[in-house]
Amino acid sequence: MCSAMVLLCIFVAVLCQVCALPLKNSTEPNEVKMRMKRKYSDEIENWDEITAMDQILIVNSRLRAPRGVTFRDGDIASSYPRSAITCPGNACLWPKSVDGFVYVPYIMSPLYDDMDRITIETGMQDISAGTCVKFVPRTQQGSFLDIQPRYGCWSFLGQTGGSQTLSLQTPGCMWSGVAAHEFMHALGFVHEQSRSDRDHYVTIVWKNIMPDQTHNFRKQATNNLHSPYDYNSVMHYGRYAFSEDGGPTIIPKPDPYIPIGQRDGPSALDLHKINVNLELANDV
Question: Span of the secretion signal (predicted)?
Fold first, then answer.
């Protein structure tokens, strides 16, 4: 009996010591700071509202730039001697033909399957159906788009001369709206929220932007073609682009609930600006 009591006392003493040990709290501040940042795709709560640019940033988050190429604004490529943004004297625009159309020759990688080609051609058609731009298979033209399933979704700005790569990775970039977005870059257009007058229409929430990505929100010296700001442009960043913690990085004003960006293809104002821009540039 005594030995049983002794054993019981020893067991109780050990149990008390174990209970006295501090428990690890999985939500301690130090551990929170150690957690990896959320992926950009984790910040998009409603996938029905994902924009073309949202999808581009998701795909390009794993992108390593090809040798000799840098990227600005998430998907605008630049070779080292050339600015990714400026287009001095409209030198980067494709010329207008005597029949009034702007022909953009292209070749397409044989690595694409039939569905990929249909998606890419739909992006072209969405632009051509409402503008003077016609995408045509290359024959002997010196300047042309070389559409390749490289890593990521990206394009150079405007016509660079000679063969210029336009990357539409498959399957990540295989949305016709994403294709149209990159083709608009190739036509010389930057993102809508990069407009010189954007501060009248949106607020950039700098504190919510990843510190190393703030350069992607710089305004550009754009010719706005006397066109209204287009919240519905396929070239507009999504509300949470480059968000560090899931908070919005772009808030429309005066109504903060106006939807911004979309994935369906060029808006009516996008098509209008293509026509006006090419008409003015080629008549100078």
Answer: 1-20
Q: How many CA atoms lie within 13 A of 265 on its CB side?
A: 15
Residue 272 among known ligand-binding residues: no
Q: Residue 86: what pLDDT?
A: 52
Strands ordered across the beta sheet of 76-79? 69-72, 76-79, 153-156, 163-168, 144-148, 102-108, 133-137
Looking at this protein, which amino acid is placed at residue 157? L
| CA 214 – CA 191 distance, rounded (Å) | 15
Q: Residue 98: what are its φ and ψ, rounded to 5°? A: -65, -20
pLDDT: which is higher, 276 or 260: 260
**Catalytic residue positions?**
182
Identify the band that residue 219 occupies on the pLDDT scale cut at 50, 70 and 90: very high
Residue 150 binned pLDDT confidence (cut-offs 50, 70, 90): confident
HSE-up of 277 (CA within 13 Å, CB side)?
Answer: 25
Is 181 known to sit in a ligand binding site?
Answer: yes
